[in-house]
Amino acid sequence: MLRSVILAASRSSRVERLVETAPYTRDVVRRFVAGTSTADVLGVTRKLVAGGLAVTIDFLGEDTVNPDQAIATRDGYLALLAALAEAGQTPAAEVSVKLSALGQKFDEELAYECARAICAAAAEAGTTVTLDMEDHTTTDSTLDVLAKLRDEYPSTGAVLQAYLRRTESDCRELATAGSRVRLCKGAYREPESVAYQSAQDVNKSYVRCMNILMSGSGYPMLATHDPRLIAIGEDRARWFDRGADEFEFQMLYGIRPEEQARLSAEGHTVRVYLPYGTDWYGYLMRRLAERPANLMFFARALTSK
Ligand code: FDA
């Protein structure tokens, strides 16, 4: 119930204005978002990489409604990749891209062309791209774009969401040599017809999908903060004899940083998903919806002096 309310608030421009203008919002946002400028994200990247972590950077922007916005997002990524290469932060830093920010909802071809330019710039910079996954109405389109991008840039990765009933089958399709798959639980509100609803069913699906990816010949990226799933991931890595360059754990910036450090100290590759940009509102609200306990933290910061 609370999760639905927060997800509804994530689409309300009135609540957005309220949050943006509240005192001390900046401190709360900074817990989950690297900042608003390329300089900000480079600074945080340097610190994380120096601490033994890898990163994937998300230039925030969603639901682009016209081609100019799509082009501006593409150009933001091109500038970011140039800055990362110049700062010597690749290949430890890669980028994550939402096709909706590149115009997917109104022009799939435009989104593909923009993503292709980003993949080309990433290859030039010595790194790669992973396509984020959004609500289930975009899954087929995103996987179609992925297939086209992989023809030219085979290391382009994709996200699959364990809460979708279709995902086991998508994992089977993508557990092939050279394929990079980021497995997460899924962050959107989805109907029962397409998605498991209970935490237990989602977790069971995550384990089935993880088994397929870890036993396959692709490169699994286990994106979760869930202690039980991480423990199962460590177990499967031992069982399938996967070393630090054969799979990785991934977590969001600001969430369980001590666990990120522990896994890294144990020799695992750990990549932190690092969002930045002025368009942080929808991202932040999804993080709050995942864990309503964060609301207390947020409310305290909003109301405190
Ligand atoms: P779960 O939500 O059960 O959390 C397990 C534990 O982790 C909690 O008990 C708590 O300790 C901690 N935790 C989790 N979320 C927290 C939070 N917000 N604040 C504080 N603690 C928290 N989704 C999607 O639909 N499309 C996508 O493309 C992506 N991409 C993506 C990339 C990466 C690298 C990650 C880690 C996640 C995503 N996600 C995503 C989000 C994902 O679907 C999911 O919503 C979150 O990761 C939360 O699920 P967990 O697996 O962490 O488990």
Automatic annotation (TrEMBL):
Residues 45-298 form the Proline dehydrogenase domain. Pfam families: Pro_dh (PF01619). InterPro entries: FAD-linked_oxidoreductase-like (IPR029041), PRODH_bac_arc (IPR008219), Proline_DH_dom (IPR002872), Proline_oxidase (IPR015659). Its EC number is 1.5.5.2. Gene3D superfamilies: 3.20.20.220. It catalyses: L-proline + a quinone = (S)-1-pyrroline-5-carboxylate + a quinol + H(+). The keyword S-adenosyl-L-methionine does not apply. It is an enzyme of class 1 (oxidoreductase). The keyword Nucleotide-binding applies. It comes from the Bacteria. Pathway: Amino-acid degradation; L-proline degradation into L-glutamate; L-glutamate from L-proline: step 1/2. This is proline dehydrogenase. The lineage of its organism: Bacteria, Bacillati, Actinomycetota, Actinomycetes, Micromonosporales.
